[in-house]
Amino acid sequence: MPSPPCAHVGAGGLFSSTSPDEASVVMLSWPISGHRTAVLGHISHRGRTMPDISGDNPYGFTMRLTEVDTTSESGSSGAPCFDGWGFSVGVLHGGDGRFSYFIPLNVVRQTLAQW
């Protein structure tokens, strides 16, 4: 049986051990302009910070975000990101019109455990 495009991606983190050509993902969202939207993308960077993205960090976010080469529409925040096995590996934080930025699932788990 052939391996899916993200054969080395697990649900514990977001693409920490994949090469760029193995990092194919799907985002499922419900933007204001439509519903049940599926967008294919590839990982372009695994460790963006808020200052990297916007030059500003008014809320003091410290997590590292995974950059995906897809755009996301208003209303899509919180959309799940799935790997080639169908595991949810992150949630959409936002986008800048060129890329979308996802919070890795392991960061979400750690944050929830601290609450």
From TrEMBL:
Gene3D superfamilies: Trypsin-like serine proteases (2.40.10.10). InterPro entries: Peptidase_S1_PA, Peptidase_S1_PA_chymotrypsin. Signal peptide: none annotated. This is Peptidase S1 domain-containing protein. The lineage of its organism: Eukaryota, Viridiplantae, Streptophyta, Embryophyta, Tracheophyta.
